[in-house]
Amino acid sequence: xxxxxxxxxxxxxxxxxxxxxxxxxxxxxxxxxxxxxxxxxxxxxxxxxxxxxxxxxxxxxxxxxxxxxxxxxxxxxxxxxxxxxxxxxxxxxxxxxxxxxxxxxxxxxxxxxxxxxxxxxxxxxxxxxxxxxxxxxxxxxxxxxxxxxxxxxxxxxxxxxxxxxxxxxxxxxxxxxxxxxxxxxxxxxxxxxxxxxxxxxxxxxxxxxxxxxxxxxxxxxxxxxxxxxxxxxxxxxxxxxxxxxxxxxx
Length: 250
Known about the structure:
This protein has 9 helices and 7 strands. The protein has helices at residues 25-38, 73-83, 95-101, 103-112, 152-155, 161-165, 182-200, 215-218, 222-236; strands at residues 45-49, 64-67, 88-94, 117-122, 173-178, 206-211, 240-244.
């Protein structure tokens, strides 16, 4: 019988996921492991996690990882890549960590064109710390710190990180994907693989922004979050390649 699918060996079998049921973090972590295996670079990989839900899987992955102070993952990744240039260094960060608390470090690393990869999970809210409003929270979307919903005049507008980084000269590759459909899961995997390959080729800064869900803090059934992504999140954060310098002959 032909084998169609095998569980990635980068996830330890005797460990249990810390993610809430239906959370797409689990899907993304699986995709990262599959890509590392397929590219035969598990032993070269080092993941720097931010603080929050993005760090919940550090206990059950079978490759090197380190936790950075809140928001400082890109700064830590910069130091690690410069001192270990043959390693594959990537950050795994949520919207609060990457786009709020770590905004200065994130933009500075991108502006320098650091040869690192960012996996950025955009679920529109702070997850682990209590459902506070994040930089990516939609207008009208309720949060523990915005019980009446996000109001532009009071809180500003959702931040679009791919488009913000696209204003800089240095970034090599920026793509926004999702895992809300099987087709988009495949596209996300391909984007992660491309971002990792860019780093191995010395191309500089790459980021994959993944529009995700948070059933717990959205207050929705996991299946209903798929509709919310399609109807609310994706019109605000359209999917696609924002920049790919390889197509410019760079």
